[in-house]
Amino acid sequence: MSKEISLFSDYHTKENSLTNHCGLILKLLYEENPTSFEEAISSLTSTNFIINPTFEQQVRKETSVPDLVIEQKSFSIFFETKRTDWFYSDQINRHLEGFKKNVDYNILFLLSNFEIDNPEEKYQQQIQIAKSLDIILVPISFEEFVETLESVDSSDVFKKFLVEFRAYLDRNGYFPSWRYLLEVVNCASTIHEVHEQNVFMCPNTGGVYSHRRAKYFGGYKWKNVKFIHEIKAVVVIEKNYDSEYVQWNNSNYTDSELIQEAKEKILLWDYRIEEIKNNGIQVFLLDNPYEVNFKKTSKGGLYGNKKYFWDLAKELNATNSKELADGIIKKNLSWK
């Protein structure tokens, strides 16, 4: 049974509550400023979305020319909201079938915490099916959703609600986790590459050499991480140079620029060229190093070849490597 979007919803499941909050923030924006609502939807769909009434004189119609014409376009906007990226084709197709015909704008948003940069590539087939039905299908992340709402003109009251909405999404883990993630990697034999050239390389063979996407990197040796870097990108050069591509891009650089930089780093060491012939290679392009001395205090070396710190940057309210390093130093943090 359908329910009106409400400030006082009684949903108990996290997904239904999340959907209600997303709908509520849009409802507040629309009731406050329909023009800003137009702007937000236009930005999210890359269209000229217009819903406000137009006022025109002497508009020729099929059988007459009225002195004054006031018209408003029709629209239907569907949201399928999920806490994680788990949309399936059958559900999307049923949503597409549910739209009314002869409507000026039919839009389906897939709203989720996308950890990938270009979710539209994953749903390209569904996007094309929707387009053939004159429906706009757009996968958007919660982060993009909030940033778009923050960019339009609104009152101080709405901005206050938006701050609280962003905090709710962040608190419940609906923003990409990689933006807070610090990966510490055992660089016992290659720490000179990290410290001297701001690069970390490892075989492209999967298994123990698989890596989660992360924003921060720490090269580990002798029970210590001496510098915290930001990961600009990870470039993969496959075995025998069969192909090359950007695995993750955390920067504003183009893929071609990052691939070129990775190739230049590889040429600094002959043994890396040989490694590509045998296994292929992953190239972590690092940036903005800050000294930290983040020490491991327990006995023994690093368990495995890497360790992830999921919440450290969030706990220290750090948004870059300097803030993360400063927070570790200020609190004299270590790890076991």
Give an account of the 3D structure.
It is a single chain. The chain is of the alpha/beta class and 336 residues long. The protein folds into two domains: 162 residues, no CATH class; 153 residues, no CATH class. The protein contains twelve helices and twelve strands. The strands form three sheets. Strands 6, 7, 8, 9, 10, 11 and 12 form a seven-stranded mixed sheet that branches. Strands 3-4-5 form a three-stranded parallel sheet. The protein has a two-stranded antiparallel sheet with strand order 1-2. Strand 9 and strand 10 form a beta hairpin. Helix 1 crosses helix 2, helix 1 runs antiparallel to helix 7 and helix 2 packs across helix 6. The longest helix has 19 residues. It is elongated. The protein starts with 13 loop residues before the first helix and ends in a 6-residue tail after the last helix. 27% of the residues are buried.
Topology:
Layout (H helix, E strand, L loop, with lengths): L13 H19 L1 H12 L8 E4 L10 E4 L3 E7 L7 H9 L7 E8 L6 H4 L1 H9 L3 E6 H10 L4 H16 L10 E5 L4 H7 L1 E5 L12 E6 L2 E14 L6 E6 L5 H12 L3 H9 L2 E15 L10 E4 L2 H4 L5 H10 L6
Parallel strand pairs: 3-4, 4-5, 6-8
Antiparallel strand pairs: 1-2, 6-12, 7-11, 8-9, 9-10, 9-11
Helix pairs in contact: 1-2, 1-7, 2-6, 6-7
Short description:
The chain is α/β, with parallel strands linked by helices. It is built from twelve helices and twelve strands.
Oligomer: single chain
Order of helices and strands: HHEEEHEHHEHHEHEEEEHHEEHH
* Major sheet description: 7 strands, mixed
Provide a count of the helices.
12
CA distance, first residue to last residue:
51 Å
User: What number of domains?
Assistant: 2
The helix fraction, in percent, is 25-40%
How many whole angstroms does the radius of gyration measure? Answer: 25 Å
> Number of DSSP strands?
12
